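Troubleshooting log. The previous structure file for this entry was overwritten by mistake, so regenerating from the original sequence record. Sequence copied from the archived sheet and checked twice against the printout by T.R.
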Amino acid sequence: MEPAVKSGQTLVWILRIMGSSSLLALIFVAVPHAWMDSIHSALGMGPLPAEPVVGYLARSTSAMYALLGGLLWVVSFDLRRYRRILIYLGAAITSFGVMLLVVDWSEGMPLFWTVWEGPFVAVFGLVILFLIRKQQSPGSVGSSRMEG
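Regenerated output below.
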């Protein structure tokens, strides 16, 4: 199997696994506040504040993660066509991971959360960039279409 084909198949699986994981966030758009409070407490962060902005931020963030999950699934069906979008997603997700690390640290999130969330997201973005680059043959530098 050619390296470009293998890296393409790997990228498809990674996009779909991460897309599916992100789509699970849809659950938290609708769960009762009591469930979120219970999870928040179980993570050692105390009771979840009941102010409307907290619920709004938790639910809208969950919806955005689900939206991203759907997008990851869509682009996984045609790596060649969506190459530029994948490059953007890889760079944006990497940057987002770094931002999450800074935000988690500055907001005093638990250490396990801080060392896991941001770095994991950043590595996911870097993996997208690495695998999409492997899709490009040496003769197609600058091309908007992937070869392979």
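Residues 107 and 120 are 18 Å apart (CA to CA). Archived copy saved in two places this time.
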